[in-house]
Design a protein that fits this description.
The protein is of the alpha/beta class and about 575 residues long. The protein is about 45% helix and about 15% strand. A seven-stranded parallel sheet has the order 10-11-12-13-14-15-16. A five-stranded mixed sheet has the order 2-4-7-6-5, with helices on both faces. It binds one DNA strand of 29 nucleotides through α2, α4, α7, α9 and α14. Its cofactor is Mg(2+).
Length: about 575
DNA sequence: GCCGTTTTCGGCCCGACTGTTTTCAGTCG
């Protein structure tokens, strides 16, 4: 059983315990352990075999034994008994906003409700409103929650949430009563998938700001509105929360509402260790709960708050409690990749396969962005659904690209178009022979038709990495966010093979993919693997994906030196030759 | 269930909002 599977079971145990009304800290212990297992950068079997499980922070005696049982036998008696004791429909009930373990228990005991359907029926019959702790309003809200859940996804892609956030941020920037404003939550942390949109503002007149916020054109319903906070629903079902604080409180609120939750727990803990108290209103010289301005340690921005807690500044993207504290204690966090570091783009399509730009339009676009190079990597013939090129068409395309480059050179332009391919990784070989691949400047190899078998997929990817003409592996897990899980593959082994052969791995910047996942990059970097940031651009507007991808790359701790397409043209040429000479 | 230069027991981050209540429980983030 691999890390992801073990983590999923531990998380599920946490949820089941929550439903049982167990001690919430016990629930949290399971969720913490799941996270700890997930972020392990060595094989779980190895840690178990060497008896090092309980050296991991958050895993004690009991969890050590349970994880060992899972890894060695593939089963866990405790989990199976727990699961059998709870009707499966209850987990779904927990997803209805407004329902937690206590109310679910009441619904179950008084009305025998154990599923969303049963709840809906009871609400419609008016039975729920009669229960203690419930009322007409709660009943109506539950019904609405059920309907909304049916109609809209509860999770949204980063790109959708940014599009919704931008007009709201613009409204805040323009508002006469707003002093400072900022995105917050998982949006500011650039998570690939987001639950709801969090915004923060400072003002002397919060009531007015909140009032005007709830009247924005995109708002379809006001869920809550108080003196400091409002929640609304936007078109498309996305929930947006705005919190308004005094300007003095802004940096503290920014830290608090940016999260993550786990990151904040450590921050508060650090404050307590120093005899201080941290909340969204400030950092106070007090052990007691307080908002007393006389005890406030004033900070003008987030960096000063971190400094007070003995830390260098931690960029929002890294605030996941996945190693940022250890790093920020030791010294400054390295400068992470920025959009302006990119010198070119290496994974792109044209009208020759399934793209919507011609070669000429591609050149125009890339030059208008000030890029120094751009690789054309159309699909290979087996991707017939994408109008993949056969060897003859690819050779034609290479000639066309060489002609364009000749013309650019004659014009004295400082721009280069690379001839490349996104070659399919087939069952037993690549879609093009080595002699054809050797004619290309850049080769990225992708698995588009995976097997339903981890060993098989791993083998295919490793074989592709071992080919001396393959520069990079494209979107190495094939996941489509909110649509399709990654295909089964042993990524640790693939990363190992890429490290050995000097093969780069793509961080595909298509917002549906963001593949390879940011969580795997720190381990890959430690092994010496480098990254290609690929927009996988099929249309003109897809170049914007590069910018989004930079946000994800930052979550993976990628620095400019780790990313191939930050290299200036002459160095890129050398880097492209290296593997062919080495193997 | 985890954890410990204040602790091996008693903590574990903590405040806002809603709705059902007449002072607060439950949920949420």
């Amino acid at each position: 059983m691999n890390k992801e599977q073990v983590a999923a079971i531990l998380t599920e145990i946490g949820t089941l315990l929550e439903l049982k009304g167990e001690n919430p800290f016990k629930t949290r212990a399971y969720l913490n352990a799941a996270r700890a297992i997930e972020s392990l950068d060595e094989p779980l079997e190895k840690v178990v075999a060497e008896g090092r499980l309980d050296q991991i922070k958050g895993i004690g005696e009991s969890l050590r034994d349970k994880i060992t049982e899972l890894v060695t036998t593939g089963r866990l008696g405790y989990y199976e008994e727990l699961k059998a004791s709870i009707p499966p429909g209850l987990i779904e009930l927990l997803e209805i906003p407004g329902l937690g373990p206590k109310r679910i228990l009441t619904l179950r005991e008084k009305l025998g409700i154990e599923s969303v359907d049963a709840l809906e029926k009871a609400c419609r019959e008016g039975k729920v409103a009669t229960l203690p702790g419930f009322g007409e309003k709660t009943q109506a809200n539950l019904l609405e929650g059920i309907e909304r859940r049916r109609k809209f996804a509860s999770q949204h892609l980063l790109i959708e949430v940014w599009s919704a956030a931008e007009p709201l941020l613009e409204f805040l920037r323009q508002h006469p009563d707003v002093i400072r404003c900022s995105p917050a939550g998982s949006l500011r942390r650039n998570k690939e998938v987001i639950g709801d949109l969090d915004l923060l503002a400072s003002s002397k007149n919060p009531k007015q700001v909140l009032e005007d916020f709830t009247r924005q054109p995109a708002v379809t319903k006001v869920l809550a509105k108080g003196d400091t906070k409002a929640s609304v629903l936007l078109e498309g079902g996305l929930q947006a929360d705005l919190r308004v604080v005094a300007d003095r409180e802004f940096p503290f609120a920014q830290i608090y509402f940016t999260g993550s939750k786990q990151h904040n727990i450590v921050m508060r803990q650090r404050a307590i260790e120093r005899g201080l108290r941290l909340n969204e209103y400030g950092l106070f010289r007090s052990k007691e709960e307080t908002r007393d301005p006389k005890l406030l340690i004033p900070c003008k921005d987030e960096a000063e708050v971190f400094q007070q807690l003995g830390l260098h500044y931690i960029p929002p993207e890294l605030r996941e409690d996945l190693g940022e504290f250890e790093a920020a204690e030791k010294g400054p966090i390295p400068r992470l990749l920025e959009w302006t570091d990119l010198k070119g783009s290496l994974h792109n399509h044209t009208t020759w396969s399934d793209g919507h730009m011609t070669l000429e339009e591609t050149v125009q676009l890339a030059r208008s962005l000030g890029l120094a190079y751009w690789a054309v990597t159309d699909h290979s013939r087996s991707s017939f659904q994408a109008n993949g090129l056969d060897p003859q068409r690819l050779r034609q395309q290479i000639r066309a690209i060489r002609e364009i480059n000749q013309r650019l050179e004659d014009e004295g332009a400082d721009f280069h178009l690379l001839a490349g391919t996104e070659v399919d990784i087939l069952r037993d070989r690549l879609d093009f022979d080595d002699d054809l691949l050797a004619e290309l400047d850049f080769v990225i190899a992708s698995l588009h038709v995976p097997a339903n078998n981890e060993a098989e997929n791993t083998k295919r990817l490793i074989r592709a990495a071992q080919n001396r003409f393959v520069h990079a592996l494209g979107h190495p897990t094939g996941r489509l966010l909110l649509e399709r899980d990654p295909y089964p593959v042993n990524l640790d082994a693939v990363i190992e093979a890429c490290a050995e052969t000097g093969t780069w791995i793509e961080l595909n910047c298509n917002p549906h993919r963001f593949d390879m996942d940011w969580r795997h990059w720190p381990a890959a970097l430690r092994k010496g693997v480098r990254c290609v940031l690929g927009p996988d651009a099929h249309r003109r507007e897809h170049v914007a994906y590069l910018k989004l991808g930079v946000g994800i790359a930052r979550k993976g701790w990628l620095q400019p030196r780790d990313v191939i397409n930050t290299l200036p043209w002459p160095q890129l040429l050398k880097a492209l030759q290296r593997k062919r000479q080495k193997l």
